[in-house]
Amino acid sequence: MLRVLAALALLTTAAAADPCTEGKPFDEAALRARLTALASPELDGRAPGTAGDLAARALITERFTCLGLTPGADDGTYAQAFDAEGQPTANLVGLVAGETDELVVVGAHHDHVGDKHLGANDNASGVVALLAIAQAVVQQPKPKRTIVFVTFGGEELGLLGSSHLVAHPPRRVDLAKVVAFVNLDMVGSYSSTRAVYAFGSFPTTAAGKLLDRLDDAYPKLRVGLGGHSVRGDQVPFCKAKIPYVFFWTPDARCYHETCDTVGKIDFPHLAMIASLARDLVRGLADSKLDLGAMRGKTGCGK
């Protein structure tokens, strides 16, 4: 109990320093504060069912609430509860309503392996990028398509959270209406190889066409386009024939090691990657293309 209280106090302090709908979404100091809270020793890696998992979900829930996202779980909350190998956890689902019932889903897993593995890059980086994108979206005019933000539990145990959502989608997340899925996982280690990969961004997909143009606006990012990835929360969506983009930066040094800490995060490039992902999400949400028809033709890309 003491660890939970200490973690929540840390999270509250970070949130108070960064009002939800004010300021710049991709400000490096704000990203650092939120990532530092998620990857703190008090949360001990956010393994499903632990005090750290509860505290991390409390931070994300607080942020979703402050941003005014519409709760997406069937019980009227953000939390889609499930068991991860016997441990209680949840996906967190929030929406920004658009003008149509088509959906663009943005996801990032909030869990890690625990036991002093703090998971700053894997995947506190993806969660803070997702939260920054959500902030940017609510600061902009209403999108054409509804944008769904999901943080998944149980990814490290075998994509359990994303698989659960695809197998048991909440009423507000009709998979037949999902035209794109954007996954953010390990986006804080650009400095490792000086590259970020956007798997699934094939020329035949709307996301591939958009990223081919957006890439030019980010001259300090080397973006690898295309290619399938068989690991990550996009896999259940791809099996459902939903086009995806999976943003990922390699991290050969600290992947699933105790050195995956805040001090290793490349915050300048994390901010750029999150901004690029925002531009993609917003471009998909507002696209005049018939994304439903394109999904029917190409599935998750080829």
Describe the fold and architecture:
The protein is of the alpha/beta class and 302 residues long. The chain has one domain (2-298): Zn peptidases (Aminopeptidase, 3-Layer(aba) Sandwich). The protein is built from 10 helices and 9 strands. It has helices spanning 2-16, 28-38, 51-67, 120-139, 160-167, 190-193, 206-214, 234-239, 267-286, 291-298; strands at 70-71, 79-84, 87-96, 100-109, 145-152, 178-184, 196-199, 223-225, 244-248. Strands 1, 2, 3, 4, 5, 6, 7, 8 and 9 form a 9-stranded mixed β-sheet that branches. Strand 4, helix 4 and strand 5 (145-152) form a beta-alpha-beta unit. Helix 3 (51-67) runs parallel beside helix 4 (120-139).
What's the structural blueprint in terms of helices and strands?
Elements: H1 2-16, H2 28-38, H3 51-67, E1 70-71, E2 79-84, E3 87-96, E4 100-109, H4 120-139, E5 145-152, H5 160-167, E6 178-184, H6 190-193, E7 196-199, H7 206-214, E8 223-225, H8 234-239, E9 244-248, H9 267-286, H10 291-298
Parallel strand pairs: 4-5, 4-6, 6-9, 7-8
Antiparallel strand pairs: 1-3, 2-3, 3-5, 7-9
Helix pairs in contact: 1-2, 1-3, 2-4, 3-4, 4-9, 7-9
Q: Gist?
A:
The protein contains ten helices and nine strands.
CATH topology: Aminopeptidase
CATH homologous superfamily?
A: Zn peptidases
Cα shape: globular
The average pLDDT score comes to 94
Q: How many runs of DSSP E, i.e. beta strands?
A: 9
Q: How many domain units?
A: 1
Class derived from helix and strand content: alpha/beta
Give the termini separation.
49 Å
CATH class: Alpha Beta
The gyration radius over C-alpha positions equals 17 Å
- Separate helix tally: 10
Low-confidence stretches: none
CATH architecture: 3-Layer(aba) Sandwich
Task: Let me know the largest β-sheet.
Answer: 9 strands, mixed
The helix content is: 25-40%
* Order of secondary-structure elements: HHHEEEEHEHEHEHEHEHH
Question: Hey, roughly how much beta strand do the residues contain?
Answer: 15-25%
